[in-house]
């Protein structure tokens, strides 16, 4: 649908109503692309669009300027329909320099729009980006299939801020605002949200605030007054369920999920953590909630981080540790301790590409088997995974419930993609959240007024006693315990008994979790795509599109990875084929094949990038042939 | 009010009240027995209810201590007790938290947690039973074994320098550094009381004899024949005097300690170094003079409180910050936290 409107400047522009748009903001690490993308996203969210974002940045804080290694990107997919992925390809690529164009051009849609800062395409930048001597993609016709807008953003920003009294460095830093202003104009979005943001952020630096706002408006006016742009786009609000929304990233959802778990259980929250990408934001965010019965502790290392959390849980709090792959490996021994102690503990692994330092800023799902089995001895633990940024909230809350109500450490998996990505969230009211039952024991439970710290209830759960409780003093530890008394025992039969008890206790959690079912498609049929974690959005989009195209395909997504929902095997056996796409070599695939003996097929991707919808659709269609 | 009356009426606990029902299983003659006895002996004097005491230990012979105290306790994993205890104390500062480690547990595998605990200054009492050997793993040299130590893993002698634990603790900004020994019960009781009274991390190094793998290592400091010559017992405000007939003293010549013979003309006890627990520079010299060479003069090993400093604890700092924030900002409702600052409504 296209309509022609008169702009205030008088030149005619076509306003195209688009169902959804993908924009990729791409530039050097220092170009402020993450901020630009976030501001655009927040504004789109306020206008009622559904959306999904994908920030992607290098591991280096300041990689060599102008090189492809230093390119930082922010992708946003917003629309008037439901959006579950940041988009396979983009409609608009903002390239602040030659390196950005080089890295990100491949995923621009045919006939897509490129907005470039020509200052970033000078001889030096072209050379740094690795273009051969004398080659400039803006001049050589190689972009003729796209709509290219060549704008000297740097020059316009300097002109706009001449006489502002700011230094050249600060002036140059404002150039992202010019682009943002232009994009707001192009997509028919108001500048108010960002103006408020700038005003608040630079409340104490009036000159900087003024400069940013002036540049933002200059960008808007540039679009409005020059006749370069003949097309604007409008994305109508999405038909989302009624309610109040906020935009949220996975790491922020994780942090407030923990605060909610503390409120709902009445337990003080203790986070022991050590800085690691991409988990640090949870520590940062949670540190802001100290007034909510939250204590955050930046420990000397990953081991101290989990051990302090174990200490806090032992003392009667909700102990939590957050980390990513390498940190997870360091915590392994302590997880074994928490397992044999049988105390509540949350271990949140925000996965990244591995092994070792691997790809610190890129996403992967390759720690599933580590979560399942990464302990010495038989150390069964519940494992659950979040499927989207907002779902991190629900998942963390559920992890806390299991940990507290079943007296066990719980491993909660998210990953870099959903941790940094964001989406609109129709957040719940506190009153609608289910309380978490905490039962601190204060009375003896054994014969003659004795206390038996490992006497179990019907769910095989042992009692939790806070130090400070009169008359129930007892010792626990990492040595094998005699059933019930908890005293050290090297008895062979007792060890086998305790091994099975710990195993069965985790298995019994399956009694209190929801059954698995297809969330898209039929509950039996030709093919089911079984996913876990952050692949949810891409699978959902692919499966729904294929269903709309008339294919018999379904989508089952797992939050509970240990124990599995009780009916999972039965459900899977109702389909002719099972496809398990993962960002690893096939880890869930192994678990499913081993447990249910179904001939599931796998699909792997280990590129530090989430699945695109088309990758999944192609594989599904291949299997449906 | 009623609590006070009730407490006053409660009969004072005895050493026996602190013994758990578990059989003590250290080797016969182990120095750990004495330490356990002294701890159980002094604890009733502290007046802390048993349920408010928590022992956290790591791994090693010493770490079994936890099982023998009728308090709350956790026998954890190798080297990590300090980190676990930090979490206990941070969550509930009202608990009296005690750590028990051996030299391998505290200074080798747990070295990082040791130094950071000192720096952070949680109000925790850290007892390190130093026997200069790995006992539970059957006789390897430890990070406190003397250089050249012949042990299971070093049949030709170790080639590395040992830690000087008090020096290490001082370097890590420990606010209470002390040393005692298993064969001097009275002294150990005194040091334990001082540690309990100190607010902040109290490091108590206890020389402990391992009769199986390192017998007699510290006898020079405990046996009558040598003790007075080889050990010096520090007291705040008292001169540094030692020797069979207290005839030797230590004087400071600038930053250089000098042993003087008090029987010689012109040497007066009034000119000696007066021990000042609060002087950190001097504490460093005391901690290290025995293993530093000063023109081949052999200095005695110091026992007692080497250093004590009043400084805010970690848990206080943590709580004060929270209290201040709550007073200034109030506690937000969960609804407010869920909604954040920026929301929009879909009608």
* Secondary-structure element pattern of chain B, one letter each: HHEEHEHHEEEHEHEHHEEEEHEHHE
Question: In oligomeric terms, what are we looking at?
Answer: heterodimer
What does the overall shape of chain A look like? globular
Structural class of chain A: alpha/beta
* Greatest chain-chain contact: A-B, 71 and 60 residues
Largest sheet of chain A, if any? 7 strands, mixed
Radius of gyration of chain B equals: 23 Å
Query: How much strand of chain A?
Result: 15-25%
Task: Describe this protein with a few key phrases.
heterodimer, A: 625 residues, alpha/beta, Pyruvate-ferredoxin Oxidoreductase, domain 3, Rossmann fold, 4 domains, seven-stranded mixed β-sheet, 24 strands, 35% helix, 22% strand, globular, disordered N terminus, B: 347 residues, eight-stranded mixed β-sheet, three-stranded antiparallel β-sheet, 33% helix, 19% strand
Description:
The complex is a heterodimer of chains A (625) and B (347). Helices cover 35% and strands 22% of the residues of chain A. With 625 residues, chain A is of the alpha/beta class. In chain A, the strands form 5 sheets. Chain A has a 7-stranded mixed β-sheet with strand order 12-11-13-14-16-15-22, sandwiched between helices. Chain A has a 6-stranded mixed β-sheet with strand order 4-5-3-6-7-8, sandwiched between helices. In chain A, helix 19 links the parallel strand 23 (575-582) and strand 24. Chain B has 347 residues and is α/β, with parallel strands linked by helices. Chain B is built from 12 helices and 14 strands. In chain B, helix 2 packs across helix 7, helix 4 crosses helix 5 (111-120) and helix 6 (165-171) packs antiparallel against helix 10. The N and C termini of chain B lie far apart (58 Å). Mean pLDDT of chain B is 95; it is low at 1-5. Classes of the chains: A alpha/beta (625), B alpha/beta (347). At the A-B interface, helix 1, strand 10, helix 9, helix 11 and helix 12 of A face strand 1, strand 2, helix 3, helix 5 and helix 11 of B.
């Amino acid at each position: 649908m296209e309509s022609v409107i008169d702009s205030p400047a008088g030149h005619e522009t076509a306003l195209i109503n688009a169902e959804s748009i993908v924009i990729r903001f791409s530039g050097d690490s220092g170009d402020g692309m993450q901020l630009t993308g976030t501001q655009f996203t927040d504004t789109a969210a306020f206008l009622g669009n559904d959306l999904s974002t994908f920030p992607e940045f290098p591991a280096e804080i300041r990689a060599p300027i102008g090189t492809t290694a230093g390119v930082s990107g922010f992708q946003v997919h917003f629309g008037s329909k439901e959006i579950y992925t940041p988009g396979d390809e983009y409609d608009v690529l903002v390239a602040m320099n030659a390196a950005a164009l080089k890295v990100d051009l491949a995923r621009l849609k045919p006939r897509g729009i490129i907005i470039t800062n020509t200052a970033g395409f000078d001889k030096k930048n072209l050379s740094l980006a690795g273009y051969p001597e004398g080659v400039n993609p803006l001049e050589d016709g190689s972009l003729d299939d796209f709509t290219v807008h060549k704008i000297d953003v740097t020059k316009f920003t300097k002109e706009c801020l001449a006489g502002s009294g700011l230094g050249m460095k600060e002036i140059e830093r404002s150039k992202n605002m010019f682009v943002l202003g232009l994009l707001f104009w192009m997509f028919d979005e108001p500048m108010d949200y960002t103006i408020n943001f700038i005003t608040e952020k630079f409340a104490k630096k009036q000159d900087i605030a003024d400069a940013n706002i002036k540049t933002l408006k200059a960008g808007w006016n540039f679009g409005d007054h020059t006749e370069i742009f003949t097309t604007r786009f409008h994305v109508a609000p999405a038909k989302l369920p009624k309610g109040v929304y906020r935009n949220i990233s996975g790491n922020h959802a994780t942090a407030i999920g923990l605060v909610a778990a503390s409120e709902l259980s009445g337990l003080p929250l203790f986070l022991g953590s050590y800085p690691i990408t991409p988990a640090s934001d949870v520590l940062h965010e949670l540190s802001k909630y100290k007034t909510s019965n939250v204590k955050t502790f930046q420990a000397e290392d990953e081991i101290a981080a989990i051990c302090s959390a174990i200490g806090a849980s032992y003392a009667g709090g909700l102990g939590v540790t957050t980390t990513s792959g390498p940190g997870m490996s360091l915590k392994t021994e302590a997880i074994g301790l928490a397992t044999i102690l049988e105390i509540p503990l949350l271990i949140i692994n925000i996965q990244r590409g591995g092994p070792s330092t691997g790809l610190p800023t890129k996403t992967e799902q390759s720690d599933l088997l580590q979560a399942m089995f990464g302990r010495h001895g038989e150390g069964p633990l519940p494992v659950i995974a979040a499927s989207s940024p907002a779902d991190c909230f629900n998942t963390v809350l559920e992890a806390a419930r299991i940990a507290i109500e079943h007296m066990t450490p719980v491993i909660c998996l998210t990953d870099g993609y959903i941790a940094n990505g964001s989406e609109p969230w129709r957040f719940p009211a506190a009153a609608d959240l289910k309380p978490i039952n905490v039962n601190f024991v204060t009375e003896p439970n054994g014969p003659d007024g004795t206390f038996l710290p490992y006497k179990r209830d019907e769910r095989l759960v042992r009692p939790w006693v806070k130090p400070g409780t009169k008359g129930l003093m007892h010792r626990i530890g990492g040595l094998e315990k005699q059933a019930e008394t908890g005293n050290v025992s090297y008895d062979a039969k007792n060890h086998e008994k305790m091994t099975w008890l710990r195993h069965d206790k985790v298995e019994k959690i399956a009694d209190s979790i929801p059954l698995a079912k297809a969330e898209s498609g039929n509950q039996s049929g030709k093919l089911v795509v079984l996913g876990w974690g952050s692949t949810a959005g891409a699978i959902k989009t692919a499966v729904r599109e294929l269903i709309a195209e008339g294919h018999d395909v379904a989508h089952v997504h797992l939050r509970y990875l240990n124990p599995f929902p009780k009916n999972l095997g039965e459900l899977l056996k109702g389909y002719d084929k099972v496809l398990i796409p993962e960002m690893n070599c096939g880890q869930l695939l192994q678990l499913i094949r081993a447990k249910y003996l179904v001939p599931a097929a796998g699909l792997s991707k280990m590129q530090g990038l989430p699945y695109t919808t088309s990758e999944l659709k192609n594989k599904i269609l291949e299997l449906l042939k | 009010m009623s609590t006070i009356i009730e407490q006053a009426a409660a009969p004072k606990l005895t050493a026996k009240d602190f013994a758990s029902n578990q059989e003590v299983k250290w080797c016969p003659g182990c120095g750990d027995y004495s330490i356990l006895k002294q701890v159980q002996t002094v604890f009733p004097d502290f007046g802390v209810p048993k349920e408010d005491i928590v022992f956290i230990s790591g791994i090693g012979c010493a770490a079994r201590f936890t099982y023998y105290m009728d308090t709350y306790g956790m026998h954890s994993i190798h080297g990590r007790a300090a980190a676990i205890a930090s979490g206990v104390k941070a969550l509930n500062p009202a608990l009296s938290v005690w750590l028990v480690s051996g030299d391998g547990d505290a200074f080798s595998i747990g070295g990082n947690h040791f130094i950071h605990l000192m720096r952070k200054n949680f109000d925790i009492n850290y007892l390190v039973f130093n026997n200069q050997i790995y006992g539970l793993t059957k006789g390897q040299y430890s990070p406190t074994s003397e250089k050249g130590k012949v042990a299971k893993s070093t049949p030709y002698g170790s080639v590395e320098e040992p830690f000087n634990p008090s020096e290490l603790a001082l370097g890590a900004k420990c606010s209470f550094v002390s040393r005692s020994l298993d064969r001097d019960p009275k002294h150990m009781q005194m040091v334990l009381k001082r540690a309990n009274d100190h607010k902040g991390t109290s490091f108590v190094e206890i020389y402990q004899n391992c009769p199986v793998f390192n017998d007699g290592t510290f006898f020079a400091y405990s046996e009558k024949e040598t003790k007075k010559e080889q050990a010096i017992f520090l007291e705040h405000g008292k001169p540094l005097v030692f020797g069979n007939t207290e005839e030797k003293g230590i004087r400071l010549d600038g930053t250089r300690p000098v042993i003087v013979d008090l029987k010689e003309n012109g040497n007066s006890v009034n000119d000696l170094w007066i021990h000042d627990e609060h002087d950190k520079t001097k504490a460093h010299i005391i901690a290290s003079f025995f293993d530093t060479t000063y023109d081949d003069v052999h200095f005695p090993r110091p026992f007692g409180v080497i250093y004590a400093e009043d400084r805010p604890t970690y848990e206080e700092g943590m709580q004060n910050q929270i209290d201040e924030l709550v007073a200034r900002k109030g506690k937000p409702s969960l609804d407010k936290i869920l909604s954040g600052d920026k929301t929009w409504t879909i009608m």
